[in-house]
Amino acid sequence: MNLSFFIARRYFRSKKKKTFINIISIISMLVVAVGTMALIIVLSVFNGLEDLIRSLYNAFDAELRIVAERGKTFELTPELLNIVRTTEGVAIITEVAEDNALIRYQDAEKVAKVKGVSQNFLEQGRMQGTIVQGDLALTKGEFPVAIIGAGVRNALSVALENDFYALRIYYPRNVRPGTLDPSKYYVQQNIRPGAIFSIEKQYDENYVFVPLDFALKLFDYGNRRTALEIKTTDEMRISRVQRLLKERLPAGFVVQNSDEQHSSLLKAIKIEKLFVYLAFTFILAVASFNIFFSLTMLALDKQRDIAILFSMGASPGLVRKIFLYEGAIIAFTGAILGTLLGVLIVLVQERYGLVGMGMQTSVESAYPVKLMASDLLFTAISTTLITLLASFHPASLAARTDTAQHV
Questions:
Q1: Helix (H) or strand (E) segment spanning residue 193
Q2: What phi and psi, each to the nearest 5 degrees, are found at residue 283?
Q3: What is the membrane topology listed in the Swiss-Prot or TrEMBL record (predicted)?
Q4: What predicted TM-score, i.e. pTM, was given to this entire model?
């Protein structure tokens, strides 16, 4: 066994007497353990929240979405549609016309996003399992019907079973100044509500799905569309289909995957996770002051032992290693204990969901967590660097012990 490690271990595990220095060392170890455990748990929660957001969006968003690089709409030509249709890996193309409109139901009104989609939208299967009332359909017989969010239903007090009232949707027209007829300033169309969906508050309170023809007439878009939503084939990777579309489409179009459609939110989560990591690493650094002071006091307390080692031929490097190993034992014992506790708590939460979010979503009620090897790796690297920095000065102090004064 390495001599310096052997002596460091004896200092840490001394059973003859438990001095104040030993108590501080144990406290330092426990503080490192708690900090490491908290860091692993919090990072796992951020990982889980990121996956939860993705799962919520996957129930609403397309695998790939083609939009104009500039402006709100683009002209859908047969050539453009043929390019997309003949791209390898494209299974379903849903045409989308989406804009804000005023919706009235009896005496209530609300501004919401009216999203017109072609009939094959339902074939993508994204709304399956989100319908809480009614039937998942865009038509009932020959008549168009709307699929509205639960929040919109609550704001307007919509009753699906009441056939006497329809949704009245108003959309502003581009008119020349000086027009005196108020009816020229807007387009009004009526549509019956057919189903209620519930995904997440942001969507439930803002979206109404209608057939594409209904939306095109309401918005007066003609051949213009706001997006083309793509479902890929099972045997093709989404990233490969995205790359092929980018290569084949003319300039002026952007092909977005699910993450890119919400890049700002996901980027914000990653930034928050980074700052949480830095904050907890700083807490670990503060906790390392306990290691610094315990090693410094140990170096002062063991000056006679160090002098004896020097007289027996020990080098300053050997003495320095003893105290570096002592700091490493304190920190790594705490880090290993904290890691085991953190991983255990995360696994228990993942399995049993003991801690709830205090809210209900369509996919999750307990706090989501997810362990990632990279988090464990960065935690280990942080602990190692902090330990070396905290142990270096006391180890150097011990190596400079004056032999003549203590022998």
A1: strand 186-197
A2: -65, -40
A3: Multi-pass membrane protein
A4: 0.71
Three-class secondary structure assignment of 292-322: HHHHHHHHHHCHHHHHHHHHCCCCHHHHHHH
CA distances from residue 257 to 58, 97, 212, 226 in whole angstroms, order as listed: 10, 19, 22, 16
What is the residue whose two structure tokens read 């108003």?
170
SS3 391: helix
Q: Hey, what's the torsion of the CAs at 297, 298, 301, 305, to 10 degrees?
A: -150
Whole-Å CA distances, 143 to 101, 134, 211, 222: 21, 15, 10, 21
pLDDT in tens, 135-161: 889 998 889 999 999 999 999 999 998
Task: Give the integer Cα–Cα distance in Å for 121 and 62.
Answer: 10
Closest CA to 34 of 391, 335, 279: 335
Q: Please give the structure tokens belonging to residue 254.
A: 């952007």
- DSSP classification of residue 106: T
Answer for the pair 47, 211: CB distance below 8 angstroms, yes or no. Answer: no
Tell me the pLDDT tens digit for each residue of 35-67: 889 889 999 998 988 888 777 777 778 889 999
